[in-house]
């Protein structure tokens, strides 16, 4: 029995933190008259946080490759969401400064 992990997210390679959870390969025997049910346990933890997001284990897919049985563990990546920028309040418009007013002319005085 062999195991491998694959990314289910395009353009994202599995980090070492996920690959370190890969089970050790082993051997098993089969008889043509007996089917052996062998389901590996999910790795622990099933979520691995990395700097830019989180990898989540989806499950194993059984693949028979000749006489070898391979379980392919699929992981999906979810990127951290950047915090939404908070809108800055618009500054309150101030009236434009006026030049010094000219004093009224007193024609009668």
UniProtKB/TrEMBL annotation:
Entry superkingdom: Bacteria
Residue ranges of the region described as Disordered: 78-109
Record InterPro entries: SHIRT (IPR041030)
Composition-biased stretches (Pro residues): 84-109
Protein name, per record: SHIRT domain-containing protein
Pfam family, any one: SHIRT
Residues of the SHIRT domain: 1-78
Species per Swiss-Prot/TrEMBL record: Streptococcus pneumoniae
């Amino acid at each position: 029995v062999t195991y491998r992990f694959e990314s289910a997210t395009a353009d994202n390679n599995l980090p070492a933190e996920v690959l370190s959870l890969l089970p050790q390969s082993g051997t098993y025997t089969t008889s043509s008259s007996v089917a052996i049910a062998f389901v590996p346990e999910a790795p622990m933890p099933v979520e691995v946080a990395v700097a830019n997001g989180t990898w989540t284990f989806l499950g194993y897919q059984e693949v028979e490759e000749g006489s070898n049985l391979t379980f392919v563990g699929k992981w999906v990546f979810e990127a951290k969401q950047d915090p939404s920028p908070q809108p800055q309040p618009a500054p309150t418009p101030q009236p434009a400064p006026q030049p010094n007013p000219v004093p009224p002319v007193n024609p009668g005085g």
